[in-house]
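Aim 2, interim progress. The first record below pairs a target sequence with its structure tokens.
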Amino acid sequence: MKNRTRTIKQTGICLFMLFISIGHAQDINSSKTSLPETVFGEWQGNTGNGEYNGLLIHPDFIEFGYRPFLYQDIRKKANGIFVFEAMDRQENIQRYELEILAKDSIKLKRGDGNFRLFVKHKDPLGSKRVTMANVPNEIKKTWFTTDGENNLEFKLEPEQIVFRDKAYNIEEVVHFRPNETGEYRFIVKNGKDYRMFYFKNWDEHYLQVGFNGKAGDAYKAHKELPNVRIKNFAEYASSENGKKYLSAEKGASSVPEKVSKWIDNELAKVKAKPLKDFDSPQFFKRGTARIIGYLKGYDVSLGFTTGIIYLGNDITGEDFPVVVQIHPDGRFEADLSISAPLYTTQFVIENKVIPFYIESGQTLAITLDLFELLQMDIASLFENKFKNVDFKGPLATENQELIGFDFRGTDYNELRNKLKTLPPKAFKEEQLENLKQDLDALDAYKAHASVIKTEKSLDGKTQGKKTTILPKVYSVLKNKILLKNAYTLLNYVNDRKYEATRDTTNAVLKLPVPIDFYDFLKDMPLDAKSLLVSGEFGGFINQLEFAEPLNIHPKNNSTQPEKSILEYFEDEGIQISKDEKALYAERSWTSLEKAKQFYKENHENFIAFREKYKEELEVYSDKYLKPLKAAQAKPQQISMEKWRLRDSVLTQAMGLEKSLAYEIVKLRALKFDIERSKPEVARDYWKRLKKDISHPFLIEEGDRIVEELFPETGKTAYKLPPGKATDVFKGIVDPFKGKIVFVDFWSTWCGPCIAGIKRMKDTREKYKGNKDFVFIFITDHSSPIPQYKKFVEEQELEHVYRLSDDDYKYLRELFQFNGIPRYVAINKEGDVINDNFPMHNFEGELSGILKENK
């Protein structure tokens, strides 16, 4: 019987395979074929925006991501569509389907994507074919890596390119954007080994080469050059600072005597002693801290004169960015207003971050090699992979020990994939194992406390360096690890909710998150002040305050009219169409974005409805909406019910004690809870809320917020303080004196900025040429010129300003914002009416502003 069963199973399998084979044969020709010659050449995608969106279909390969994929298997379906696979040098395989529509048009599908239309061009759009003789001599030379190894990578010769000691014959050269400097695409081969090189952003000393899926690694013409591009090299090389740096022996780290004396003099002014530990009653202490230092290799010819520290108050959620002034001789300095010890990576120079630890009343000196900093990638910076950095001052030991620990890197693409593939329990278990490994690594770092190293510092002196870890340092590092882990777990819940709206068929995303998922919070020191020191606390507390279990609200029907529009029309016998009913049908939105999209798509239909039933809607408004608004306008208590519910969830469902962190959650919500209230209502709410807050400093912060929102003397416009930032801003707004100015800080990469400007287009048109007010728009160089010009033209923006990065940083500091969009209202005299203007309610705010500024 066993043999008979196996025979039946085998017969079934054979029949199944035969069925599949027959079906496959009906769909695809049994013999291999090749692509017709008509498809070989340059193809342009149908973006319609005039930008290059092309690809090359070569007789031997198809281009994708700066690399050739050689054809492996080409077949033709019965319907005429070609199906083929192609493989690159790393054996990555792409699957394609190609349909020929005409001699000059095809549809191409890659992988599981959609078919896209391509049109054939003789040459790539905006380019021309050239010979090697046309390639500039600045490119035709040897090029070395900028990874610190100084390896000879490329050598360009008249008929070949030598790449990593292997010679490739040049098959063709294409010059993109020949009316500009442009870039050059080389197709080269050695036998059947094809390469595609894109030489771009070139000058006499540096260039980028895109290949093997990379958009462009940097190369230099001489080994002696810094590993970071110097834009104005001739100017830099002739400057005093540049000569010193370029002529210095590799690894030399001398600090000019004048600079060294300045640093010593600044440090000598420090009178306060560092905190012994974080339990000190001086932990919360408002005061000034100073960051000073020296950038080895800096010169003004490099094109920047500032850095920035993105300072913030994590207790209240406020931003206080501070500009770091860089002097011509390489010295830098900044004064920080802080209220607690701080360990942050938010000190930024040329998009590179520098970690530091500081306390109120202290000064920290940092000396570093500018070009080492600029060469490092973001991941290395966040993982503390610094080599040549030196700290001086009372907190030098803390900083040296903090930077000595190597943090685990984060693969965000891997995390994103795990959202869709790992259930909550499995994700949490994996993350907690990572946490254990990180804590073990920290303990191992601490265990080597007896090791003493002797090395040269950046000032050239030999010194002994203890790796002893102070208790404060261990506390900061451990809390940083705990906070990063907690953020990852809390963010997992939020991100998978978003992904579930995009991938509605994913079974993993439909699994609920059990309440015990959050029990990792029980192992965190949520009542310890030391938790606030790490820069990761801001991200963590933001995730905690919006964590799903705590995101609970009491039922509140007072904001809803007694009858909806549809109910009123039905009761009154007013007949409306099916499509009109659909506009006001009750919906349960899965996201705010979907609701906004619906109203955007139906904007004209809503306008038409309101025009058609204008009289009926006025009656409805008088009867149901105006009484509701009047009731809401009366002073009333802000309910404490949401906190009663959240307190219960925290202690009963999540099993957590009330803590300093939870009190901060309440304080961070204060401004939002009261800013639309009457002063007496707001003060009453804060009086009741602060009974649940035990820490005196948090109560002081709450008192400050209430007073700033509702000053006893009433709100008045304020004058800008004298200084560089005000000078920059006055240079923009002074020409509009006599008018109210609404300022929009924006960028082309900022989605909410773009959406806000588009939404206001009709409003701007409505008030165009108004005698009382004007709109202006300010961005920086992070808005690329082509996208910037195109958007400005599309939106018909007037009074637009694209500032240098240095000037823009000063305006960030002036109006205290880290994120954009940010809106500011200026009165006719040039004083600030509102430095965080609610542009979403422009029409509602306008009449009051005009009335107060006649």
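The second target in this work package is listed in the same format:
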Amino acid sequence: MSVHDGRREPVAIIGAGCRLPGAPTVDAFWEILGAGVDTIAPMSAERRALDLLKSINDSAHRQPDDREGGFVDGIDAFDAHFFEMSPYEAVRLDPQQRLLLETVWEAVEDAGLTPRQLAGSMTGAYTCCFVSHYWDLLTTAGMTDMHALLGASRYSVAAGRIAHLLDLRGPALGTEATCASSLAAVHLATQAIQNGEIEMAIVGGVNLLLCRELDMGAAEAGLLSPTGRCRFGDDAADGFVRAEGAVTVVLKPLSKALADGDRIYATILGSSMTSNGRQGQSLTDTGTGGQEDMLRVAYRAAGADPGNLDYVEAHGPGTTEGDTAELGALSRFLRTEFERVGRPLDQRCVVGSAKSNVGHLEVAAGLAGLLKTALALHNRVIPSTLHVRTPHRVLDEEGCPIELALEARPWPERGRPAMAGVTALGTYGMNAHVVLTEAPPRNTEAAPAHHDEQPMVLPLSARDPNALRQLASAYADTVDKAERPADVCFSAGTRRTPHNLRLAVSGSNPTALAEQLRDFGSGGRATFPLGKDLKLTGEPRVVFVFPGQGSQWTGMGRELMAGNAVFAERMAECDLAVCEELGWSVIDRLRSDEPMTTLDVIQPSLWAMQVSLAAVWRSWGVEPDLVIGHSMGECAAAATAGALSVRDAAAVVCRRSTLMAAFPGEGAMWSVQLTETEAQAAIGAHTDVVSVGAVNSDHSTMLSGDAEVLLGIIESLRARGVFCRQVRARFASHSPHVEPLLPKVVAAVGDIRPVAGQVPIHSTALDHRVDGSGFGAEYWATNLRSPVRFANAVRGALTEHPNTVFIEVSAHPVLTVSIDDVIEAVGADAVALPSLHRDSPEVPSLHASLGTAYTRGCDPDWRQVNQGRYVPLPSYPWQRRRYWADPALQEQVATAVDAAISARDRVQTVDSLTRDMRLQLAAVLSMSPDLIDPTAPLSFSGVDSLLAAKLRSRMKQELDLHIPLRDFLSSRSLSDIATQAHRASAQDS
């Protein structure tokens, strides 16, 4: 058991989500509390249409339709697509569970957690829901099946649904203690954390008013207020008003929350649950003795002195009996405690109730009170309690230590941490109380320095295009208001889930970021294009490409050496290796304004740049699955792959370039817009002195060899209108020109010791995949003489994995055009990205390509990209659609699908069979066929094991197709299954 100052470790409330009357967000809830807003209102016409009692038993109406209460808008709508749920399942899911799913996600986001962090963790899910009247509607509509059974008949399933959604491995427990349910759930979760049973907990409660039968029962018992307001603390209080909503909180050990830099609303010191036993005259009598027991146990368990209590969020039902009992018990308990510590009566404990703002949420009431109190502690303001004309007589008793806050007031400063309690009382004598204190000061460790002009990249993602645009607009406002925009970028990368649709924007100041975000949000074009739907393309393959010469420029590397520790460290290592070989410093040459003109300077310098840039990419979490080197670029590729040590790779590039620089004779290299076959034909009889030195794409070839002979070939080609460009090189690599040098190369690098690398290498000299263990002396002679089969290397990578991100690791893009040409020829879903650009700021250039890589499915380690600390961010913008048990609507869909099935083409082709299978799936899912993508995996349509069984049965019955159940549960699409079924049918016939 962990301890804290001699007590069990406190538990931090690090995240919250809510949907409450008049308050769809946590911020909105605090706004109505702070402003003293009453959200009770008549039931709207739209809401009356959802009244289940009217649907189930119209003759049972005994109350008018204009009743008042705390209502939540849009309870019939849900973002099923986000939760990968089929419309079929969504319409059978109790709207209470839908609300819980959304507020759970919001709370997790608010806590700065991601499903990846939670997956497999010992995190508990604790939930409480009210009676599922939605099940009655499903029954009446004839829509009961296993999905309905799991979705609406058992409210305890909600905890398991949350655990499944987030892959939580702790307890998944549904609690039921009437109006104390949600606070009881908090108690159980807190104890489990303090006992070391779980690492974290997600606690949620929800209540919806879907049937008026309970209204009638409460009204007949005299519990409902005739005035439609909860007047807790008023001497003439006449009952409560029913309300609905959902609240979820995320709990975590305080020490862990502080270590992780979490935002903490408040801290739970301890809690209690007790029962009144036989202290009341009946089961439902309010027992004051039981409530005093509850308070004593809670503060003893918390190790907290109740004599220091500042505020109590009461159960506060606003009933005559209930208020008298609760206020009386609290007054007696605190009077004794205040006398014990000598606390004067002018320092009374304030008592209040959120029910005066939003009504009585019943099973979720305890969590609503907990959230209110946590926000009050966080903001150091005690909100007012509404509708009090004459304070309750208990408050007027002599020596009463408690009072109401009739106006919002600052939290009292008393030279000690603020402390509060929250109470929830159950109908049958169940009592629960939670002791809270203010969060300790946030880690005072200095935040990373922020400069007005600081390169930043902000990653966003969503599961729907409209959601992504709305999110971009919300982030624009957040960036504008941020004290440190870098913190927003850091938090967006490290504390949000990367979804399948992505956007990234970069800039050096908040104005640049916000402008791009607003442009995208309004439908314009952002700096980075919207990436492909990663659910369809899958995880990309990353290929690092290292060019030969041509990318150098004066000033390259200076910005990164000054501002990127990884680059500087790797460059220093390369510099030492080159200095040992050649006696001069690469770093000094990079800092010099003297142009690089000789091979023995250019090649070692470019090699050091490439190796250091590769280290930066890898430090950002972008790891290569394959490396490709072009000519001399294979030295950097070998070092990056681990086939050569930095010292051995430096030895190869330094010694070889020294030999090349001293080599006599005049050679030349020309890039021509010809195929390899056309280039060979152009060389004709001159193969003894001219060669195809490189094939970069289907229509880009390098000719290399004798300068004079080449000039004649080029003149002939230009006369035919062929594009030709001379490469700045006196040394004609990859041609007969270099053959006299090869033995010297072998002798010069005979002491290197290659090993099998950690990353595969596609050798452009050998034209096949290698592990690098053969990169000895002979290989580097072959590399110098053989043609560079670059196009084949790119084509091979695309053949294996069409969704590839090629990153050219160089000081300036030399090969991206050639890569794009091959991508276009192959028709692959790939992209080629540069690292730096000549004479351009280096970090922004890298950020731009990193952002595009992110939109293509790469998941960088954003902690290494953006420096900052966690700050709250906008929550996910739900894209809700209506899902309600409407038999007429279900019948309309079924009729439309049946008509389409009847009109289908009887001549079976793959396309027609795919259409038929799509119709059958639409019938099973009760949705329009137009909403089903036949090329996407069936799981994207929400097909689970239950629906797969129905689909298999329908395929057999309607289409005479015998398809194994496993095919419907795999990652295959309808198109794939239809193709296989059509092929099997053709073979049988």
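The domain at 456-537 is CATH 3.30.70.3290 (Alpha-Beta Plaits). This observation will shape the mutagenesis plan for the next reporting period.
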